[in-house]
Hints:
The chain is mainly β and 124 residues long. Helix content is 0%, strand content 49%. The N and C termini lie far apart (40 Å). The mean pLDDT is 96.
Amino acid sequence: QPRLVESGGGLVQPGGSLRLSCVASGLTSDYYVMGWFRQAPGKEREGISFISSDDGNTYYPDASVKGRFTISSDNAKNTVYLQMNSLKPEDTGVYYCAAGRYGLARSPHEYDYWGQGTQVTVSS
């Protein structure tokens, strides 16, 4: 049974940093794309960072995180990371990792497996 477990969320002041981790288990090899999504209160879940495990390509569809967020992976540990720097209050939300097999897609409908989410709150 595939399972994704996120960790690393918390409360941070504006301008601070956090690193989220997502440990995957039970995924078959065709699930080669991992993504991070964010859901702010009252808003839809949005894709923010994606990585392909076969070639290392990354995709950041949300212009607001470019240059601040970095997605990376350690295939030996089955772990995907999201390094978040220069955090802003608008980055607040629940962050989910997800596994997919349809390319670097930003739509949550393209992802089959999800973690339980980790809360990130950016506030002074």
